[in-house]
Q: What sequence folds into this?
């Protein structure tokens, strides 16, 4: 009954290094999202996925790539980290509403604090 | 495009005061969902409420209450008799109704930092 698990929780990178953030959910949710949170900016959507094998760009996708090879996992990659990518990253998941157009809410992970020096 | 505006950035009150956090939204859809989240100093996001666009009834949960007015596109949050534990960042968020999945994403306001002093 873990919900959404993000690893790692903290990471310090040097400029130019690469890394992958992992988001795993055990609720069989179709939709998954990656957000970044910066002071005074709220949470902004980076990329999202509406199903296994599909991804789409959000509001701030530049510098990031994602993959959803398995339904339960959503990976966020930084190929060449920059100081501007210092942020707190949140993953979330939600159920697909189907024809009823309902929204059953979102489950968020506890966040990953990334510092790029 | 959907948008959420939280014009207040920081609010400071003394314990036991009432405080209202404002949220104004924009959407072209007639079916949408509004949310409030609390982010305490520990950093996690705590879900407070979800409200769909067809339900304009105000809601009360303990010291928390929400006022949804479609006429003014507002979904305001009031904390009655505030406590130090209410100190947090509060986010209002909007999601349009899910049709293709592209509309399911959540759009957040910039957040309001509430400080409750003893």
A:
């Amino acid at each position: 009954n873990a919900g959404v698990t993000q690893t790692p929780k903290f990471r310090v990178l040097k400029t130019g290094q690469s890394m992958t953030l992992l988001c795993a959910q055990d609720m069989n949710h179709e939709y998954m999202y990656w957000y970044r949170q910066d002071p005074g900016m709220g949470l902004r959507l980076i990329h999202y996925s509406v199903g296994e094998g599909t991804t789409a760009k959000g509001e701030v996708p530049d510098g990031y790539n994602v993959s959803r090879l398995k339904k339960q996992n959503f990976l966020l990659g930084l190929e060449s980290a920059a100081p501007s990518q210092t942020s707190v990253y949140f993953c979330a998941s939600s159920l697909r509403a189907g024809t009823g157009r309902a929204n059953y809410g979102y489950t968020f992970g506890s966040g990953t604090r990334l510092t790029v020096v | 495009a959907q948008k959420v505006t939280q014009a207040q950035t920081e609010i400071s009150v003394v314990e036991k005061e009432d405080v209202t956090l404002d949220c104004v939204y924009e959407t072209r859809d007639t079916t949408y969902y509004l949310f409030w989240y609390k982010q305490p100093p520990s950093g996690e996001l705590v879900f407070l409420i979800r409200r769909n666009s067809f339900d304009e009834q105000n809601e009360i949960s303990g010291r928390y209450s929400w006022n949804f007015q479609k006429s003014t596109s507002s979904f305001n949050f009031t904390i009655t008799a505030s406590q130090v534990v209410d100190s947090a960042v509060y986010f209002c968020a909007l999601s349009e109704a899910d049709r293709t999945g592209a509309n399911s994403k959540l759009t957040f306001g910039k957040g309001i930092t509430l400080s409750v002093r003893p």
